[in-house]
Amino acid sequence: MKKQTFLYALLFGAALSVAASAQRIATPFNDGWRFRRAIDSTERNVTVPHTWNAEDMQVRAGDFYAGEGIYTKSFTLPEAMREGKRVFLRFEGVGQVAEVSVNGQFAGRHEGGYSAFAFDITSLLHKDRSEANTVVVKADNAARKDVVPVNHSLFGVYGGIYRPVWLVATDSVSIATTDHASHGVYITQRNVSGTAADVRVRVLLDNATLQPADLTLVNTIYDREGHTVASETKPLRLSPQGEREYASDFRLANPHLWQGREDPYLYRVETLVQRNGRTVDSIVNPLGLRHVELRAGEGCYLNGRKYPMYGVCRHQDRWGLGSALTNREHDEDLALIMEVGATTVRLAHYQQSDYFYSRCDSLGLLVWAEIPFVNQVTTFEAGNAKSQLAELILQSFNHPSIYIWGLHNEVYKPHNYTAALTAELHRLAKRLDPDRYTVAVNGYGHMEHPVNLNADVQGMNRYFGWYEGRIGDMQGWADGLSEKYPATVLMLSEYGAEANTAHQTELIGETIDFQSQFYPETYATKTHEAHWGIISRSPYIVASYLWNMFDFAVPMWDRGGVPARNMKGLVTFDRKLKKDVFYWYKANWSKEPVLYLTQRRLVERERGITSVTVYCNTGEPAVRLNGKRLALRPGTTAVHFVADSVRLRRGKNVVTATAKDGAGNVLTDRIEWHYAGDTEGKVREYEMKKEHGGF
Fold this sequence. Notes:
alpha+beta
């Protein structure tokens, strides 16, 4: 809770001491809720974040509660929020349609399960200290054709108030709170280089009195140490008729640039609103000065320097919690993303916690942020898709980590409708934020598809050897597009294969039956070894994002031996086990020394003549089988080493690997295998000839 409170204080300028009642006050509103499903009569006590789908959506295919849940909370308005204050309820996320009432009166409705929303409830409250107030939230996660996502097919929309809630009080004159629940302050940066940067701070002000207000607006930029870099004081008269925007312009000399993971330097921008000599509102926002350029056929350039785009995708849910996460779970995910060596993350397929974006700012991860316009078109979702895009952009506007806005993923027919809507979403994004890129994603691999090329960047999801074709087909696909469309900015937005760590076999080929109940980890490892080798040598692929960093719930699926589970993650759903492919990417991407023997879970060997694979990023390691050193050949990248045609002995076999890091320290790894004779199994291949474009 302390981390959440600090975060809100940073971004929304919350005066957390009730004694400081001149400024805004933000109080956590997460305890003391009563909950029941609409089909039940029994209530129970819950604490937000909360979801009612933490179990059923994760364990049974197609058998979960999607409908209405009712939350009730009674409270007495704090003393400091009673006189001369406007009071708001701010929800960080409710799945997926929320209707809020206060003391029996309608406060507002919000459609979209992943963005924040705020309602002004001042006129609905009982101000007397002896009179309780009652808030009722009706949350409904049933699929609707007019709210994206329109189904639960690619991922489950967890029902409930699954992110924190805040009770916020401001002065009658304040920075706007209800502009799509944004911060009300929008920071743009242009002409960024090591010698100068132009920064504009736009502030949206709101006067809820009946008279003009004489104010002073102060915008100040501080460096990391708290020293003032630039400041402007602007006197103004604020009309009570509608919100008004005011701007401060700064030119910073010799700025310290935000250079990704290498140097994620952050300034902070403090915005003060003063009236009659006292501060009545304040907000602090991060400022990371950077320029991102995507060059067709070359890659990403950050502040003019080539930047490696080692990308993972992240679904937010996890085993036993669903999407009702605390900052602890977000931090654990980020620690794993940083450990594997990722430099960029696609937050798929929806707006994620503002805390997560803030941590990406400070860690130096480039972020692809997107809306949940995925999987299916109904022709009724256009208005909601635009609304959710506006919320995503305005709420996340000041995060320097975000470099691109995602408009859709794998949506197709009717093609003319989808193409037109994508173009509208692109125009909306450019009006709200002209300085960031947009991207739309197709599950098909040909540029001529009729919904393509309506955004700045074309993303394509390709699962060669899994949903179609053979593992090695990725090379021909990348080469073909490069030759035909050299000027197009292309990203490989998803690739990979599923890995059930309980499924192990040596008998794998170049294809697999993805509709089966057998998803061997070894096949996924082979797929990633081949695909990253191709990607790393293909400059035409400007950025790539493996699918997925973590296993996640797919409540409508029943494949691979685990119902309701997508197992394409590098890490298991509970975050307890790192698969072989985690170490594959860590060896290729991370600066940390890595020495890792694969197939450590394939203990019972099926063939007496086999191979040994090791990943090492400090040079060629020494690998021994039962004490005898093995000859190694290079694999698909410089960290990949393979010993072919290795003969096992019956019974116990010990494989060891040793290497030295750059400081001369000895690295070691060891696994044990058991061989009892060749099995009768054989390689089973099942090639999908038809191009697969998604579900």
